[in-house]
Amino acid sequence: MKVMIYTDGSARGNPEGPGGYGCVLSYTDAAGTEHRKELSAGYKKTTNNRMELMGVIAGLEALKKPCEVVLTSDSKYVTDAFNQNWIDSWLKNNWKTAGKKPVKNIDLWKRLLAAKQQHDVTFVWVKGHAGHPENERCDELATAAADGDNLLDDVIAEVVS
């Protein structure tokens, strides 16, 4: 089953202002009918990169069985981590960057790796705010969530394990 996932994250007053993520999942069944699902949530105090990661995590965690996934994001932070093999280096170096500093957002990177484990995921970068319909919709979802009520607490765990 092939699923398209589009994601975006937003933070007001980055770093550590309110933020949100938006995610659109799309699947076309054998009869040619498209099925879409939109996900979003807002957080009281977070960063843009954490929200970019949460959009990806939410999309992958929504899948109920192994899928072939094309995941499109305007975040180089997310796409380059996989397409430039940063994640492999971080794992090999016990969550340290090439500069020997701890990788930021380890908690979410670990959650993303767990969420993607059963899927065949291809990461695609798209320029943000450039008219890509699904990216624009994700941006709308993310910013509305960041500006919304009932914001969640983002528990930032920067502990290296």
Describe what you observe in this structure:
With 161 residues, the protein is α/β, with parallel strands linked by helices. The protein has a single domain, classed as Ribonuclease H-like superfamily/Ribonuclease H (Nucleotidyltransferase, domain 5, 2-Layer Sandwich), CATH 3.30.420. 34% of the residues lie in helices and 29% in strands. The chain has helices at 48-61, 76-83, 86-92, 106-116, 133-146, and strands at residues 2-11, 17-28, 34-46, 68-73, 120-125. It has a five-stranded mixed beta sheet. Strand 1 and strand 2 form a beta hairpin. Helix 1 (48-61) runs parallel beside helix 4 (106-116). The longest helix has 14 residues, at 48-61. It starts with a strand and ends in a 15-residue tail after the last helix. The model is unreliable at 157-161 (pLDDT under 50).
Contiguous uncertain segments of 5+ residues: 157-161
How many individual β-strands? 5
- Roughly how many Å is the radius of gyration? 15 Å
H/E series, N to C?
Answer: EEEHEHHHEH
* Overall tally of domains: 1
Overall geometry: globular
Strand content is 25-35%
For the residues shown, what is the average pLDDT?
Answer: 94
Give the CATH level 1 class: Alpha Beta
- Secondary structure tally, helices: 5
Strand arrangement in the largest pleated sheet: 3-2-1-4-5
Return the CATH architecture.
Answer: 2-Layer Sandwich
Return the CATH topology: Nucleotidyltransferase, domain 5
| The CATH fourth-level homologous superfamily | Ribonuclease H-like superfamily/Ribonuclease H
What layout of secondary structure does this protein have?
Layout: E1 2-11, E2 17-28, E3 34-46, H1 48-61, E4 68-73, H2 76-83, H3 86-92, H4 106-116, E5 120-125, H5 133-146
Parallel strand pairs: 1-4, 4-5
Antiparallel strand pairs: 1-2, 2-3
Helix pairs in contact: 1-4
